[in-house]
Amino acid sequence: MARLLEGRPIAERIKEELRKEIQNLKIRPVLASILVGENSSSEVYIKSQQKTAESLGVIYQLHRLNQNITEEALIEFINKLNSDNSVHGIIIQMPFPNQIDYKKISQYILPEKDVEGMHPKNIGKLLFGKAELLPCTPSAVMELLNSIKLDLYGKEVVVVGHSEIVGKPLSLLLLNKFATVTVCHIATSQAGRLEEHVKDAEILIVAVGKAGVIKGNWIRQDAIVIDVGINRLGDKIVGDVEFEEAQKRAAWITPVPGGVGPLTVTMLMRNLIEAVRMQI
Ligand code: NDP
Fold it and tell me: Nearest 5 degrees, angle CA 112-CA 114-CA 117?
């Protein structure tokens, strides 16, 4: 029976360290958060970011912008925050209304204020293993693996999902640790080969967003399973992996909720402190 790899205790330990670092900085870091229009899932993230920020002594500035804002006006707003020396980090909440192209807009955030680690310059540094600001969810996954003192060198790691915010940057982080990384995606499933790859995984990381896409009986004996997925099933939140069956085979498995999620916002705050250091 797998042991539970829980994010909350790790997040608490890291937050304790961050609290001390913030005290040593002698300034209060400021995180500017931009929300365009209204969205109930964004409100949940904002509340969680706000709560974590306040508990660490970070000032959380929420900027609610009109649903109909043009790209030009949004860029102008970002530029204002870029040139405001009292703001150390900028985050844009997803999702966006249709008239806004996220990829285009996110490039306007100064790389040293890009606390989500998604600016092309920061992604480029990640390729070279030199990024100071890492994408938050991938770095949360790496913290979970670190917490069980796992040496990734030569390990068979399978990542399912190749999104720009999770799967792709995570694969680079794992490669930088000399893991043997296989990245699966929709075409792997369509080719009928997802199961065979998953069965080989010593470490399996799933970020798809479809409940039960990974069958529990595909899990290799004593594998480590990190489930990034968040899916609402009725009034329950579940991951992408069939948990009960997977738990019988794995050595470690993350619960959903309570695995990756609690660490992601902590990684955002860690980036913010790094951003402050880069700016002062
Ligand atoms: P995306 O929708 O951007 O990416 C999903 C990925 O899964 C894509 O690469 C997609 O391929 C692939 N995929 C879709 N269907 C299949 C399939 N049947 N078999 C194999 N691969 C498939 O999602 P995100 O990366 O943004 O998020 C993934 C999940 O993680 C979501 O549930 C999200 O809510 C959760 N999440 C959790 C976070 C946390 O803090 N815990 C943070 C961020 C995300 P293709 O694009 O080619 O179709």
Answer: 110
163 lines ligand 1 (CB under 6 A): yes
Residue 37, phi-psi category: left (phi > 0), alpha (psi -120 to 50), beta (remainder): left
Phi, psi for residue 101 in degrees, rounded to 5: -100, 105
Give the model's confidence band at 86: pLDDT under 50 very low, under 70 low, under 90 confident, else very high: very high
CA of 71 from ligand 1 middle (Å) equals 26
pLDDT in tens, 207-239: 999 999 999 999 999 999 999 999 999 999 999
DSSP code of 253?
A: E
* Cis, peptide link before residue 257, omega less than 30° from 0: yes
Contacts of residue 93, defined as CB under 8 A and 6 or more positions apart, other chains included, come to: 33, 34, 35, 36, 39, 42, 45, 46
Place of tokens 């594998």: 223
C-alpha of residue 278 to centroid of ligand 1, in Å: 31
Cβ atoms of 119 and 89 within 8 Å: the answer is no
Nearest to 215 by CA among 202, 203, 198, 232: 198
C-beta atoms surrounding 9 within 10 Å: 10
